[in-house]
Amino acid sequence: MLNMQKKVIQRWIKWGLILYGLGGIIIYYFGDYFFFPKVALAQNHIYQFGVPYKEVNLAYSSSANINIIQFPETGETKRGVVLYFHGNRKNIGWYARHAPGITKAGYEVWMIDYPGYGKSTGKFEEQMLYDYALQVYKLARKKFAADSIIIYGRSLGTGIAAHLASRQPAKRLILETPYYSFTTLGSHFFPIYPMNRMIRFKLPTYQYLPEVNMPVHIFHGTNDWTIPYSNAKRLEPLLKKGDEFISVEGASHNNLGTYPLFRHKLDSLLEL
Fold it and tell me: Are residues 24 and 91 in the same domain?
């Protein structure tokens, strides 16, 4: 009887280790498909946004192109530009709906796609995300003074935006649904694996925030299960005097814009 029980336990341990190993292999080799569900588009694709826009292609190298969509301001007062770094899904076409809420305040909105997203090409690597952001910032500086530039990151884009803001001057940094780091986010979903060794992207927002000199404003919903509220809340102690961590009670990852607190506060920041 004891022998039989021992064999059953050993069998369960064996299968457990096999499943654990298979899971690790899947995460290690196919994690990008889980974390970055990007959608590429043909270079001749025509966006149907329903609002005016200008498309700009910025050559990063002979084999890499940065696709930028520029939405003009629609408000009475011209205030500058918002460099908008979007989330991990699809491409600019998925996020363009957020532009009108900003352009009405008098800001142009420039959205870029990351390598492999939309019409942008190049190697999808963490350093490339930072490099693309810097190139777009340099392009903006040819038209706008630093104090007329707002750096805005949403979800995946928050780590990229924080990195840029830690190295370049701007009016303010706005982070919508940020993460402490990409590795801690991965550990939330796969706690039994050493995610810091298994995923290529680190995106350590927590390292960049202390180096940001401009005002920082963070928005996060308390019911966000995509990037847990608890993960983002770890950033609050890193904020300097005058910065804000704005908790939107009941909001989830994709519906912050439907909450009056978010809309009112964001509108107020854009009018400053």
Answer: no
